[in-house]
Task: structure prediction
Amino acid sequence: MFQGASALTLDAKGRMSIPSRYRDALQAQAEGRVTLTKHPDGCLLLFPRPEWEDFRERIMGLTMDAKWAQRIFLGSAADVELDSAGRVLVAPELREAAGLAKDVMLLGMGKRFELWNAQTYKQQEAAAMQQGLPDSLKNFII
Result:
């Protein structure tokens, strides 16, 4: 399970170094193979390949009213591998879709990661903090 936030930088070629605390797990779980795709919230999702394959099957099984979700998730998916330096290349189309230029946030979200433009993430997080907890969490958290 992946958790935690990492402030990272994309290099001039659009490569991002995966933090060392995640590299071993990605090598063991997915042989360094990951899949990146768009998310409607404006970030990218990064899946270890076995988790992506499970997610892809679930998305493909959705009904016709979810065709645009299928197009977003499946149509923009890019399979990549960690290079020898532990970096992944984020395709230009995906960087553009999520507004990624240089400073990014990688969030461990259990079985996958979210990759955000650092400034966008800070703004979204601040707005969420101002709204307070949703009703579903009010009795969950002490």
In short: The chain has one domain: 2-138. The longest strand covers residues 2-9. Residues 2-138 form a domain with the Chemotaxis protein chec fold (CATH 3.40.1550.20). The chain has a mean pLDDT of 94.
